[in-house]
Amino acid sequence: MKEACPCGLGAAFEACCGRYMGTGVATPDAESLMRSRYTAFVRGDAAHLLATWHASTRPRTLELEPGLKWLGLEVKRHTPLDAARAEVEFVARSRLQGRGQRLHERSRFVCEEGHWLYVDGDLL
């Protein structure tokens, strides 16, 4: 049985976010990139997170929270602003040391040389 993609679209990982992670294949839009980044958090793939983070805001290193369990993603809206800019509002649920957490964010993305990149976001 194929592994389901954590992003919530219901497809197999390889046919969904897996095709963008570590492959050099560009995501078609900001929502697809955001979903692949959520999947990278679930899978502990800091390399994908750093590779898809805009250079102007990307940290030098990224330490993922040990013991954090991601529970689900809900994309509230994907708003293209123009051909090279978009916003994605989402809610990601997680649990750390038995305590539930909810991350509600409006993220900003830019497309450079055919690749969407995460810039930053506002917590809602």
Terminal residue distance: 37 Å
CATH class: Alpha Beta
Report the average pLDDT across residues: 96
Shape: globular
The largest pleated sheet is described as: 4 strands, antiparallel
CATH architecture: Roll
Amount of beta strand: 35-45%
How many H/I helical runs?
A: 2
Return Rg in Å.
14 Å
Strand ordering within the main sheet: 1-2-3-4
Number of strand segments:
4
CATH topology grouping: Nuclear Transport Factor 2, Chain: A
Given helix and strand content, the structural type is: alpha+beta
Description of the molecule:
By secondary structure, this protein is an alpha+beta fold. It has a 4-stranded antiparallel β-sheet with strand order 1-2-3-4, covered by helices on one side. The protein has one domain (13-123): Nuclear Transport Factor 2, Chain: A. The longest helix has 14 residues, at 30-43. The mean pLDDT is 96. The protein has helices at residues 30-43, 46-51; strands at 69-82, 85-96, 99-112, 115-123. It contains 2 helices and 4 strands.
Features:
124 residues; alpha+beta; Nuclear Transport Factor 2, Chain: A; 4-stranded antiparallel β-sheet; 4 strands; 40% strand
